[in-house]
Structures are given as structure tokens and as C-alpha cells.
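Predict structure. Chain length: 69.
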Amino acid sequence: MKDWIEALGQDVRYAARGLCKSPAFTLVAVLTLAIGIGGTTTIFSAIDALLLRPLPYPDQDRLHKHLPP
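Prediction complete.
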């Protein structure tokens, strides 16, 4: 178990050194992740609110829209 933790620490330090050497790549990577996570969260929230949760009305299965003939 101790070897695994030491290897993880070495990997994290190696990754941090690599990211510090190329700040432009780091910025692009962080922005890409932020946009991806934000977009995914937004889409999931919209689908959850509109499609997955029931409507907050009593007898919601009786709601419908009357269209003119």
C-alpha cells in the first residue's frame, strides 16, 4: 500500500512540473475542462427540470393544450 501512495505522489509531482513548464497548455486544458463540465451540468439540469421531474401541479396527467381547429 505504501508503494502505491509513493508512486502516486511521484506522478503528481511529475505532472505539476510538466504543467508549470507550459502555462499556455495548462490554461487551455483548464478552460476546456471548465467549459465541458459547465456545459454538461447545464444540459443535465435543464433535462432534469423539464423532462425527468414531474410537473408541480395536481392531476398533471390531465393537463393539455387546446389547439384551435
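Summary: The CA atoms of residues 19 and 26 lie 6 Å apart.
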